[in-house]
């Protein structure tokens, strides 16, 4: 393990410390969370460069609204309705003795 010094904007550091405190209830995990963020950044960069090598573009994060907008339309009944009908048919069959 290496000890390093890093210069960070006071506001950014205070926000990060507040997030760590909210998550863990103390600041003893501060170094752990900094390392975790650095590792995630490295992984994200590796994935992006790997996709670029394959000729694909990394699009970054996608909002739930974007997913909903590009979702293909449903065909037929929603799955909840299909399950409801199947259960009703099973009850009718059980009651009729088939």
Describe the overall structure.
This protein is mainly alpha-helical and 98 residues long. It has a domain at 1-58. 65% of the residues lie in helices and 0% in strands. It is built from 4 helices and no strands. The protein has helices spanning 10-24, 30-53, 64-70, 79-96. The termini are far apart. The mean pLDDT is 85.
Which value, in Å, is the CA radius of gyration? 25 Å
Characterize the largest beta sheet: strand count, sense, and whether it forms a barrel.
none
User: How confident overall, as mean pLDDT?
Assistant: 85
> What is the global morphology?
elongated
Contiguous helical run count: 4
Distance between the termini: 70 Å
Residue runs with pLDDT of under 50 for 5 or more positions:
none
Give the strand content. Answer: under 5%
Helix content: 55-70%
List the quaternary state of the chains: single chain
**What structural category do the secondary elements indicate?**
mainly alpha
Number of strands: 0
Order of helices and strands: HHHH
């Amino acid at each position: 393990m290496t000890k390093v010094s890093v210069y960070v904007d006071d506001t950014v550091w205070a926000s990060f410390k507040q997030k760590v405190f909210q998550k863990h209830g103390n600041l003893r995990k501060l170094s752990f969370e900094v390392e975790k963020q650095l590792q995630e950044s490295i992984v994200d960069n590796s994935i992006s460069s790997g996709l670029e090598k394959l000729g694909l573009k990394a699009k970054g994060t996608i909002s739930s609204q974007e997913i909903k907008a590009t979702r293909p339309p449903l065909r037929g009944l929603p799955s909840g309705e299909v399950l409801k009908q199947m259960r009703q048919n099973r009850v009718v069959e059980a009651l009729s003795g088939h």
